[in-house]
Amino acid sequence: MSDVIAAISTGRQPCAIGILRLSGEGCADVVGKVFEPYAGKPLGKLAERKLWLGRLFDVQGRLIDQAMAVFCRAPHSYTGEDTVELHCHGSPAVLSAGLEALFRAGARQAGPGEFTKRAFLNGKMDLTCAEAVIDLIDAQTTDMAANAAAQVGGSLERRLRPIYDGLVGLCSHYHAVLDYPDEDIPDFQLADFEAALREDAETLEALHATCDRGRILKQGVRIALIGKPNAGKSSLLNALVGFDRAIVTEIPGTTRDTVEETARFGRVLARITDTAGIHETGDRIEALGVERSKAAAKQADLAIFVCDAAVPLDEEDRKAMEAARSAPRSIAVLNKTDLEQRVFRVQLPFETIFSVSAARGVGLVPLCDWIEQTFANDLPCDGSILTNTRQGDAVRRAAESIRAALAAMKAGITPDAVLIELEAAMEALGELTGRTVREDITQGIFSRFCVGK
To answer: Which residues pair with 53 in a beta bridge?
Structure first.
């Protein structure tokens, strides 16, 4: 990792300010070949962590911008290495020319995520922090940004560290007593750790329980619009997303496949799927669309049964209601209420029913408010919500291993067999944070001895 890497950190679209970023030993010298501070000294000899105004040149030595540069010396930087940032005007031409000049001066193109990878390898952050950087960049809601920012700051690692360290201490204590019986080391009793292990399992299980909420926070609520053909599902989709996303005609069966679009309901991000009308058909393509509609309902967090209130209920409505009720949560929308009503609330087997005219945009506010109130995050966005499938799986495995160890203890199984489960829990947590299990255990064993032993 001693080579100097460089990249444009602000994208390649025109913007007010663009940043060229470098990391690696000697990056100040590389910058010195293309940037001259007005202070009259090379950047590496000027005060760190201050912006210095100067001139930026291209590979032909032509002045291309007045820029500002800041130098951070290792280890006090994002990557843990010497880093430089050049703050230029955000012209893509200027940034590209500046980057090319840096390459000519000795830097190389940074790979995807390489700055953050170096930060991890240099111990500036663990894997949970590194993964949260991507979540923060991709955040589509303030709740997601707040949760990711807290994890970038190490909130998840701080929650897991005591559990991991406690397991390391337990295992290293056992191995120290077993391998060095002549040393003055306190006796090892598994029962002494039972309460702490039970608390660790409960903490991990509570953390894993946030996975579903984290998926909704990160990816959005999955909403499926279910109903028979020409009930107004596509009109409702268009009304909810605010533009004509789906084709709407008076001809039944216009939508023959699922159509998905995102929408915001206050703090809640939603992924709304307009489905093909549920009905009996001999058309093979339409039949496939109907099956996809039923599958969408089962996979949704919320299914909305859309009913044409101007037409009496029929068998197709009943099949659509059955499909909608297969979702974990379902509600009904009586659509086309601007026409003479032929269907009434008492006829629908749903606790929550809204009356709307999707085509006219009437009655949508109560529906949107209900979605926000129902799915708005009720957990603190302080980094304690798992939004990463890999992390969720590791936490689950760690909790299961600790529970298995507790069960083995209760059954009177020998400590070495119990520790197999605890080491599996450490391995899972090590995968989560990027720590190495065996090195930590070894270090724990020898830290119990006096200096020189």
So the answer is: 68
Instruction: Using the predicted structure, report yes or no on whether residue 44 has a pLDDT greater than 60.
Output: yes
- Mean per-residue pLDDT over the chain, rounded: 85
Whole-number Å distance between alpha carbons of 419 and 182: 22
Rounded to whole angstroms, the Cα distance separating 183 from 176 reads 9
What is the per-residue pLDDT for 449? 33
User: What are the residue ranges spanned by the domains of the chain?
Assistant: 5-121, 155-210+385-446, 220-360
Strands 268-274 and 35-37 come out as unpaired
Tokens of 418: 């119990």
Give backbone dihedrals phi and psi of 450, rounded to 5 degrees, phi first: -70, 165
Helix (H, G, I), strand (E, B) or coil at 284: helix
Q: How far apart are CA 159 and CA 286, in angstroms?
A: 51
Tell me the fold of 220-360: Rossmann fold (3.40.50)
Q: How are the residues of the chain apportioned to helix, strand and coil, as percentages rounded to the nearest 5?
A: 45, 20, 35
- pTM to 2 decimal places: 0.79
Q: Do 144 and 383 touch, CB atoms closer than 8 A?
A: no
Fold category of 5-121 in CATH: Gyrase A; domain 2 (3.30.1360)
Q: Are 130 and 121 in contact (CB under 8 A)?
A: no
Q: Give strand pairing partners of 225.
A: 274, 304
Q: Could you give the angle at the alpha carbon of 346 between the alpha carbons of 340 and 352, nearest 5°?
A: 100
Mean pLDDT check: name the lowest of 139-143, 186-190, 401-405. Answer: 186-190
Q: Looking at domain 155-210+385-446, which CATH architecture does it have?
A: Up-down Bundle (1.20)
In this model, does residue 437 exceed pLDDT 50?
Answer: no
